[in-house]
Amino acid sequence: MGLFKSRKIVLPVIVLGLIGLLVIAAGYGCYCEDKMFGMFINEHQYLKMFDINKNSGLVGLIMMSGLLITILAHKGFTYSENHRADLHALMLFSMCGAIIAVSYTNLLMLFLGIEIMSIPLYIMAGSNKHDSSSNESGLKYFLLGAFATGFLLFGLALIYGATGSFNVNQIYNYTHNQLNVSGGIFKMGIVFTMVGLVFKIGAAPFHFWTPDVYSGAPSIITSFMSTVVKIAGFGALIFFFNGVLHPMGEEWGKTFAIISAATMILGNVTAVYQISLKRMLAWSSVAHAGYLLMTVAANGNNVPKAVVLYLAAYSLASIATFAVLITTDKENFEDYNGLGKRNKWLAIGLTISLLSLAGVPPLAGFMGKYYLFTTVYEQYPWLVIVAICTSAISIYYYLKAIIATWFKKGTEDAIQVPLSTVFVILICILGLIALGLMPQVVLDLA
Amino acid sequence: MAVLLIFIPLFASLLFLFIKGNIGKTVALAASVANLIFSIYLLTSFEAPSDDAFQFTFDQPWLESLGISFCGGLDGISLLMILLTNLLVPIIILSSFGKTPEYPAAFYGLIILMQAGLNGVFIATDGLLFYVFWEITLIPIWFICAYWGGENKVPVTIKFFIYTFAGSLFMLVGLIYLYLNTPGDHNFSWEALQMGARSLDAAGQQIVFWFIFLAFAVKIPIFPFHTWQPETYAVSPAPGTMLLSGIMLKMGIYGIIRWLLPFAPDLVSAGFNLPIVLCIIGVVYGGWIAIKQTDMKKIAAYSSLSHVGLIAAGIFTLTIDGLQGAVIQMVNHGINIVGLFLAIELIERRTGTRDLSKLGGIATKAPRLSVLFMIIVLGSLAVPLTNGFVGEFLLLKSIYSINIYMAAIAGLTVIFCAVYMLRLYNLAIFGDVTSYTVDIKDLNTRETILMGIIALLVIILGVYPQPIFDISKQAIETFQTTLTLK
Fold it and tell me: Do residue B172 and residue A373 have CB atoms under 8 angstroms apart?
């Protein structure tokens, strides 16, 4: 895409292409019964390097989010008019990596997927060349990301050393047959892989990069990072731990429970103190990673469903929120004072998506949380209590944004919203309401 | 069929997105009156006694694989709550006509949306559906209070929101815990949850009880979860206060009867007195503080705290008298407290103040207001032949049957109430005319009709409360026998 410099044609071409792909994927998905998730890995022989059908729910989610963000980019890329096409190309590369990362059946592909996804991201995070915080964001993301990749690679190498294979089936058999495995190398490998993947999804104690990178990068890139990248990271993490390493769940489950609790508490409590909406969203995305990690710890049969539903709700709400952020091009809470008077529909969109993030019924966020809690409660009741308490904290900072939009006085000049953004917000809001009323649609996907 | 009670206001509230300006009033009134008419129709076709536990039922699978369905129905208790809701909402809407709020379309749209949620809460017979409606009611009322409220509204309403939201989340955990204990492929229906509760041991029932109790205790509110209430009532616009105190609070009491006690049957039927003690502390505490207040709205708020404490205490006695008294008092308290806040609002609209030290001498200037206000005050005082009497008598009697000392302490509510209500009335209506009340106008026709309706209800329900007994008798008796049966 980078070759075509004609700016006007790029967006429609990509959008049409993505829609076409989605239609093909959906059509293909109807024919194939093969919607297996990690848990049942032993019933399947994965000979290829990766298998898209394995995780069709998450792949669909990545493509949907990517599509919405691409449409949003019509307005979002205005900061770099000359490099529109390059940015689109980078985003597509990154999406491609994300899809590989959720559908790997060979650990080599896991690594490649994560790398293909990350490298364009490093560039995109720093793509606003004249903005120093964007530069900082790009550099920080690159340095820390490379560091984490090192851990991941090292971990995978150790696992290869212990099991003699990269194939998921063989590793599964290895763990299955040697439940009392005390092999130091293998466990070391798991720990390093865990570090690498937990870094990618931005959970404690490897979350420190998230607020800086998210708030420094251009908003459109942040929306991409907090949705597509997070989906991919979780897809990879869950398939690895709840699928490949499922038999060893007892051993790593508690670790994830603690990571999850720490992430929820840290993310939510810190988000309360932010004065910038964008930074608050960054911290809240840390918090949401914590909620999702609860399911990884639970390691039950319903995990994939819970994760897909939650991620769908979270992505739609995030995209809508960032769409508002991109339209106003402002970051602080104060700048949103009186948004309700400046553009009623924009404010309604922001309110609904924030309420969904907070988990207020009947929106999708509530259904996601409900399903998550039900899945986790049997194994880790205390974790659900932590989640409840932190949810109660989280409502405060979401309300803060809503209060600014409706109840505070600010400038009154009306905001013009481009048609593409209106479309994206509308789709997201309708999606949030529809998923809240009929979550069955997504649950059947996973 | 009862499902229409949800959908009429829900669709009506969607209309408000496209309405601008004052026409909103008319639409809102029309929608709420339509609901009132429909609920009166339900009342006339309600059979008491009947063979079915619930009438006018509907049942539509919603999330089949999770055992959640969109189902509901009415028994005697919920029918009364529905009638109360749909009677009070038009009154509340009418009462705001004299002082049209900013952005009327949004304001009335939220009230109608609230009505849909409230009806849903009283109709639902599925645990998750109940929870969803329970939360839906919070959003519009929060917007009403936080947008159209008075001074200092933002911190106060945030506290209110977080308090109730946190309480509800704990209820969600309690419900999930029960749900995971239901037999077979788990199910969220009321019956299944009850079966699940029976299979729990003592510790399990404790968990369920306290988690769910928290949500209701915040909403009602029961001491010591009441701290959000007086301030929120004081800053909210009058219709918001009326919705909160008249109807929304009843959600909590209704919740205790339907969604709490049946889920911890062995626990509550074995002399479980701690909640009663909490309620009675609230009764005394609320009454005591009300005496000291000078803001009329705060007096009414604390009086509400005191009155509902007594209602909740009566429910926890699990006697027929207590439950019957609670049901009848829920209706009466709804009518009385709305009447009180309406009178206070009318005085504030005319004089610009709610401060008792600045008021006085209204009796000579506005006789109609004074007389009708008097009737409502007498109703709150539970004077015989007004509506408050029957309920309060039954409630005290039920507490007496549990423990004589508790009854004696709870009985203080009658004395306290007389002190603060008569003080309020005395200081505001009698005495010397002040600069604020010099040119106060008497009620106009619309206001007279409104206050008249409420005063009439106070007297009718006081003289002849039998219909309420007839409607709710069967539901209460079935409920009580299933609970106390081992």
Answer: yes
Query: Which amino acid is residue A320, in one-letter code?
Result: A
**B197 phi-psi bin (left φ>0, alpha ψ -120 to 50, beta other):** alpha
Q: Which chain B residues contact residue A430 at CB under 8 A? A: none
Kindly determine whether residue A385 and residue B173, on different chains, have CB atoms separated by under 8 Å: yes
pLDDT tens-digit series, residues B129-180: 999 999 999 999 998 988 888 888 888 888 999 889 999 999 999 999 888 8
A435 pLDDT higher than 50: yes
Contacts of A389 in chain B (CB under 8 A): 166
Is residue A1 in a domain? no
Sequence-separated (6 or more) residues with CB below 8 Å from residue B371: none
Q: Is residue A226 part of a domain?
A: yes
Peptide bond preceding A205 in cis form (omega within 30 of 0) = yes
Tell whether A177 is covered by a domain: yes
Residue A188 lies in a domain: yes
Q: Do B176 and A406 lie within an 8 Å CB cutoff?
A: no
For the stretch A321-333, pLDDT in tens is 999 998 888 888 8
The domain segmentation of chain B, as residue ranges, is 272-486
Q: In chain A, what residues touch B139 (CB-CB under 8 Å)? A: 355, 360
Q: Give the nearest partner residue to A407 out of B146, B165, B179, using CB atoms.
A: B146
Q: CB pairs below 8 Å between A and B: how many?
A: 69
Q: Rounded to two decimals, what is the model's pTM?
A: 0.91
Chain A residues touching B63 at Cβ < 8 A: 439-440, 443
| CA gap B421, B418 in Å, rounded | 5
Q: Which residue has the higher pLDDT, A231 or B485?
A: A231
Identify which of B65, B161, B172 has the shortest CB distance to residue A399. B161
Name the residue among A265, A275, A254 with its Cα closest to residue A203.
A265
Tell me, what amino acid is at B440? I
Instruction: Please name the residues in contact with A72: beta carbons below 8 A apart, sequence gap of 6 or more.
Output: A220, A223, A319, A322, A323, A326, A420, A421, A424
- The DSSP symbol for B48 reads S
> A342 CA to chain B: closest CA distance, Å?
14
Question: Residue A219 is part of which domain span?
Answer: 7-445
Q: Using a CB-CB distance cutoff of 8 angstroms, which residues of chain A are in contact with residue B158?
A: 396, 399, 403
Say if CB B335 and CB B387 are below 8 A apart.
yes
A388 and B177 within 8 Å at the Cβ level: the answer is no
- Kindly give the pairing relationship between strand B55-63 and strand B68-74: antiparallel
Total number of domains constituting chain A:
1
Peptide bond into B467 cis (omega under 30): no
Taking only the tens place, the pLDDT of each residue in B56-110 is 888 888 887 788 888 888 888 889 999 999 999 999 988 888 787 888 888 888 9
| Collapsed DSSP state (helix, strand, coil) of residue B71 | strand
Tell me how far apart the alpha carbons of residues B220 and B161 are, in angstroms, rounded to a whole number: 14
Residue B48 vs residues A259, A346, B38, B45, B391: alpha-carbon distances, Å: 57, 51, 18, 9, 21
CA quadruple A124, A129, A133, A134: dihedral, nearest 10: -10
pLDDT given for residue A35 in this prediction: 45
- What is the rounded CA–CA span in Å between residue B284 and residue B281? 5
Q: Distance (Å, rounded) from C-alpha A289 to C-alpha A266?
A: 11
Residues of A with CB under 8 A from a CB of B: 355, 360-362, 366, 370-371, 373-374, 377-378, 381, 384-385, 388-389, 391-392, 395-396, 399, 403, 406-407, 439-440, 443
